[in-house]
Amino acid sequence: FLSEVLTIVGLYVLLGLGLNIVVGYAGLLDLGYVAFFAIGSYTVALLTSPELGFFQLSFWGALPPAIFLGVLFGVFLGIPVLKMRGDYLAIATLGFGEIIRILVLSDFLRPWLGGAQGVGKIPKPSLAGVEFATPQQIYYLILAGCLLVGFMSWRLRDSRLGRAWMALREDEDVAQAMGINLVSTKLLAFATGAGFSALSGAIFAAKLGSVYPHSFNVMISINILCVIIVGGMGSIPGVIVGAVALVGLPELLREFAEYRLLVYGAVLV
After folding, report:
1. Which are the contacts of 109, defined by CB distance < 8 A and separation ≥ 6?
2. Each residue of 182-216: pLDDT tens digit?
């Protein structure tokens, strides 16, 4: 049970680190972040599941295309919303998240994405003959992902690009006057965050062995945003603290079912 809770916390840490780049570093309020999580999950499902019968790659074979598609869609989302700021940007990205969810649910894409039934029989990842099947084993896979993404976030924060993101967050007009290219800087923020989200989506699909459209509603985006707000925006250790407080604690307090949301609300306040 503890391993299962840790894997859920780990997934939110992964997602939080990605959103931390978009919201915490670059100051771009993205509420459609769950869309990239869904793209990562469904790409792995599409490339590995025998249920759909298109491809039957291993998890490791499907992981690079999943991350690449996440990055690609991050850029696609970034292009139309380049001129938007604040609330307008939040509403536009929220719309993008809903479009992806409705497309996945649609009858039009049912032959490829399984519609409301979702996709099952996704194989577990294996490495050197060891299959990551139990929560304890999946935990190590998620831990490796968190360490990799955490290291990349830490290196990016102090890089030229990271400083450009922070300048963008503080004041776009002054950043542009200082010679920062707003277009490429914003698109790189969206693309990097989306790639990290797609990575966590890929691990999520392999962990469950199936994906369903209802796993990707807008509340996931809101929860991830809450995680980075509680931990402190732009802070890498803060993402871990936020995930433990908002995801780990409610899971551990399941026996106090009626008080869970009360505790969640108190922690958020």
Report:
1. 103, 115
2. 999 999 999 999 999 999 999 999 999 888 888 88
Which pTM value belongs to this model? 0.89
Per-residue CA distances from 137 to 4, 124, 166 (Å): 10, 11, 37
Rounded Cα distance between 66 and 240, Å, is 24
Token pair for residue 73? Answer: 């869609």
Q: In 3D, which of 31, 35, 12 has the Cα closest to residue 23? A: 31
- 159 Cβ contact partners less than 8 Å away, ≥ 6 residues apart: none
Number of helices and strands in the chain (H, E): 13, 2
Residue 131's DSSP bridge partners are 126
Q: Which residues of 94-132 are buried (b: 16+ CB within 10 A; e: fewer)?
A: bebbbebbeebbeeeeeeebbbeebbbebbbbeeeeeeb
Q: What is the helix (H) or strand (E) element at residue 265, kind and residue range?
A: helix 260-268
CA distance 123 to 49: 7
Cα of 79 vs its chain's centroid, Å: 19
**Distance between CA atoms of residues 42 and 21, nearest Å:** 23
Over residues 56-114, the pLDDT tens digits come to 888 899 999 999 999 999 999 889 888 888 889 889 989 988 888 888 888 888 888 88
Strand partners, 127: 130
Instruction: Say which amino acid occupies 260.
Output: R
How many Å separate Cα 176 from the centre of its chain? Answer: 29
Using CA atoms, how far apart are residues 260 and 111, in angstroms rounded to an integer? 39
159 burial type by CB count under 10 A (0-12 exposed, 13-18 middle, 19+ buried): exposed
